[in-house]
Design goal:
Layout: H1 3-6, H2 10-37, H3 44-48, H4 51-63, H5 68-80, H6 84-99, H7 111-119, H8 130-149, H9 152-160
């Protein structure tokens, strides 16, 4: 034992050792907690409900030049929560931006869904885009989301958590 420690009573040394053990234990807990948080998102729905996850997914889709699916899904969410007097304007915006054949961000919808939407273009019901939104969600969940999980964008998201 070194000279400095020999002058300290043994009871103090025992207390110091005990405190060291407790401090070491406390220092390990955040690390264990962090490793539990750093699991990749389990599904697309939980990713989209997280502000940070949504942003990381958007950046990923932008890097793949396929951001229109997420933009459409978000526009449909916004439309659903819009008061009825403002729905008609938002619906026209969604049709011109995503649905029409010359739309700048045309989404990949099957012909039947597209025709049903174009047939109900004059309606401003809250659920008018539900079927199309669900199809785009399914497309993202089966195609884009698995690629996102393997991407650097997902790793960046986990580091940010």
């Amino acid at each position: 034992m070194c000279k400095g420690l020999s002058a300290i009573p043994s009871s103090c040394l025992e207390k110091a050792k005990g405190m060291r053990v407790k401090l070491t234990h406390l220092a390990e807990k955040p690390h264990k907690h962090r490793s539990q948080e750093e699991k990749p998102p389990q599904d697309l729905e939980s990713l989209l409900s997280s502000k940070t996850g949504l942003q990381a997914f958007r950046w990923f889709l932008r890097s793949e030049f396929s951001e229109e699916n997420l933009a459409f899904w978000l526009a449909c969410q916004d439309y659903r929560n819009t008061p009825e007097p403002k729905r008609a304007t938002k619906a026209l915006n969604i049709y011109s931006r995503f649905i029409n054949s010359d739309a700048p961000q045309e989404v990949n919808l099957d012909g039947q869904t597209r025709e049903a939407l174009l047939g109900s273009q004059d309606e401003a019901a809250a659920d008018v885009f539900d079927s199309a939104q669900q199809r785009i969600f399914t497309l993202m969940a089966k195609d884009s989301f698995p690629r996102f999980l393997r991407s650097s964008h997902c790793r960046d998201l986990l580091r940010a958590l």
